[in-house]
Amino acid sequence: MSNITRHYAQGKDIVIIIDRNLCKGCDICVQVCTPGTLELVDAPDKWEGSVVQVKDVELCNFCRLCEIQCPDFAIRVVKKAEEEGLTMAKGKKTSAE
Amino acid sequence: MAVDYLHYLRADKLPHMWCPGCGIGIVVKSMIGAIDALGWDKNETAVVSGIGCTSRAPGYMDMNTLHTTHGRALTFATGVKMAAPDKHVIVIAGDGDSSAIGGNHFIHACRRNIDITMIIVNNNIYGMTGGQFSPTTPYGAKAATTPHGNIDPAFDLGQLAIGAGATYVARGSVDNGRMLQKYLKDGMAHHGFSVIEALSNCHTQFGRRNKMSDPVVMVEWIANKVVTKAKAEKMPPEELEGKIITGELHRNDERPEYTDEYSQLIQRVQKKAGVHQ
Amino acid sequence: MSNGSGRTDIVFWSGNEIVAEAAIAAGCRFYAGYPITPSSEIAHVMAERLPEVGGTFIQMEDEIASMGAIIGASLTGKKTMTATSGPGFSLKMENIGYAYMAEVPCVVVNVMRGGPSTGLPTALAQADVMQTRWGTHGDHPTIALTPAYHREIYFSTIKAFNYAEKYRIPVMLLLDEVIGHMSEGMKVPDPSEYEIFNRIKPSVPPEKYFPYDSSFGDVPPMASYFEGFRFHVTGLNHTKTGFPTTDPDICQREEERMIRKVMKDAEALADLEEYQLDDAEIAVFSFGSTARGARVAVDEARKQGIKAGLLRAITLWPFPDRQVHELASRVKAFVVPEVNLGQMILEVERTAHRDMPIVGVNRVGGVPIPPYEILSKIKEVARNGR
Ligand code: SF4
Ligand code: SF4
Ligand code: SF4
């Protein structure tokens, strides 16, 4: 399973990209996201015990606060056209793999 | 335009070593945003640090990086900048690193007005060594070495920098990465010694001892403590009690920059020597 | 006004001035320092001369800062130097250790004065020799040069830079107050009289470069900052990539390499003057200004019929283990005069490794050891066998 998940909104030009390997489940992004696009879920495979996931990408308003406030470079919110050029961590494997 | 953060990072070194929710990551991210906005070339940029949690930042940055001894980042950085004045030099340091053991270097770098950008991640504690109080720990706060409450008065790093002669001084906080990025960008663009203090959360060492072990709670505590300069100007003094002012605190574009001064000195000396030859 | 390198007439420079001029001749283009007696004249000349050659002089806020600055500047590819004396040398120790660990070339001059602490600021001592070897914490190799005569100071300074560049280490140039302040007439060496060594640069592209890649030898090629290599430098134990590790095997291997890179060349690094040793029965081991007096004492002893000789270390560290050991098998006794209470004598005892008289002549009052004191010790040993 890839660490990186991409969530495409239907109605608008928004992609949320999450690198599960980089996420430490600190909850910061979830708290700054006023529409409630994101949620924290248990992740027993990660030593932090939790990880972010997209609850409903359609709720996203592209404020990008989650991206700006994430201390771990784990979440990005971009336009589809911007997606291509982004460097992705290949790096270390998650403990699940 | 989206910032390609990982282009500026050594992506194979991620995830980084900082605790979940640690503000240092937010500062580093803002710093990358600023570098990206200015279009600085990775090859032309050096990032220098001392010792502490914050000082591990250069290791993650895909640039010319230098992780030095405790408190001494500015001394190494001064060497780098004086030897290569046309390159960008950034120092990133914690509060203890920059204002306790490195305090002397800090005031003298300010005094020289050398074109280095100094980012101070101020989380009011020694994180890496186990939560001892620092020169910025608030009065009364608990730390590993103030189990009965801190009696040391705290430094105001911004005022310290201004008093010592820094020509760009700003303060931001990790609850507002966008604002922080703006000050970092302005500070980096400034030709002279710039100091950007980033109020940050060490919930692991500071928060845990002061009823804020959750990063979200501690970031919120910071958010409630800060007031922008613009807002503060309209607030009555009693409401400002205990608040910390963020914003661009000082700017002077007139004072000569140190490497400029030195290169002019070289020209003067060589011209004079030329007359003799 | 100081004179330009490349002068061929006779100059009358103090030892400190010679160090500065020779440093520039060696290619030093960055100096950071802090005022301290009796080394300050080095900074004075550097402040005047470096801008003339397009180099950088900076007076830092303290000794620690000066040491940090020369390491930073060296990483940009410059040859760098700082100079200090006793207390300042103590202050620099942590960053000197950094230069060993991160393998950054630079030259540190210590014009020794009386100590411990503030001690005798304007007076002679040779009491930092063990600190030079072991002053910074942790294991590390040491190269320290102790020239005693003026042209020798010039050549030693150039060698100090060459060794720093060749081995990627901080090299110690140990003067003492007498050597630093005494002026002697000398002819400035012509560049044809010495060689200049510049650090080996990487031959591989940035993506294949590792700053501590020992597949190129025990001294890995060194890139400079801002040349596209974007490498990481740390004082933590690290792998060949420059990034921190706590792997015991790697730490052990790398630390052994850092010592081996110097010690395997110990023979080539040894620089000794042997004077009247061929038939000597009593050998004087000495270095720096004390050796000048020791030479007089040896001459006088010879006149009085005692077969004395002098082994003078111009490279003090690495200590000339083999040479002293071999000499010990030929002579009956050693006399070791030094302006301290007995430091290098420990090395003579260790390397002689024999049951034989090894006696010191020691002073710490800030004055040179008079030749007659060395002579009377030679005579005493000749008479009593101890
Ligand atoms: S802020 Fe980042 S690290 Fe924290 S939960 Fe969200 S994505 Fe994960
Ligand atoms: S961009 Fe804004 S709305 Fe969308 S997920 Fe992030 S914080 Fe929520
Ligand atoms: S100890 Fe504190 S400063 Fe260090 S990484 Fe953890 S939260 Fe951050």
Report on the structure:
The complex is a heterotrimer of chains A (97), B (277) and C (386). Chain A has 97 residues and is α+β, with helices and mostly antiparallel strands. Chain A has one domain: Alpha-Beta Plaits (2-Layer Sandwich), CATH 3.30.70.20. In chain A, 14% of the residues lie in helices and 25% in strands. The radius of gyration of chain A is 13 Å and the shape is globular. Residues 92-97 of chain A have low confidence and may be disordered. With 277 residues, chain B is of the alpha/beta class. Chain B has one domain: Rossmann fold (3-Layer(aba) Sandwich), CATH 3.40.50.970. An 8-stranded mixed β-sheet of chain B has the order 2-1-3-4-8-7-10-9, sandwiched between helices. A two-stranded antiparallel ribbon of chain B has the order 5-6. In chain B, helix 7 (177-189) links the parallel strand 7 (168-173) and strand 8. In chain C, strand 5 (106-114) and strand 6 form a beta hairpin. Chain C has 3 domains: 10-193, 3-Layer(aba) Sandwich (Rossmann fold); 206-264, no CATH class; 273-384, Rossmann fold (3-Layer(aba) Sandwich), CATH 3.40.50.920. Chain C has 386 residues and is of the alpha/beta class. Chain C has helices at 15-26, 40-49, 63-74, 86-102, 129-134, 150-167, 177-181, 248-263, 266-269, 288-303, 321-330, 344-352, 371-384, and strands spanning 10-14, 28-33, 56-59, 79-84, 106-114, 120-124, 144-145, 170-176, 183-187, 232-234, 272-275, 282-286, 308-313, 315-317, 333-338, 358-362. In chain C, strands 2, 3, 4, 5, 6, 7, 8 and 14 form an 8-stranded mixed β-sheet that branches. Chain C is globular and about 70 Å long. The chains are: A alpha+beta (97), B alpha/beta (277), C alpha/beta (386). Chains in contact: A-B, B-C. At the B-C interface, strand 2, helix 3, helix 5 and helix 12 of B face helix 3, helix 4 and strand 10 of C. Strand 2 (64-67) of chain B pairs parallel with strand 10 of chain C, so a sheet runs across the interface.
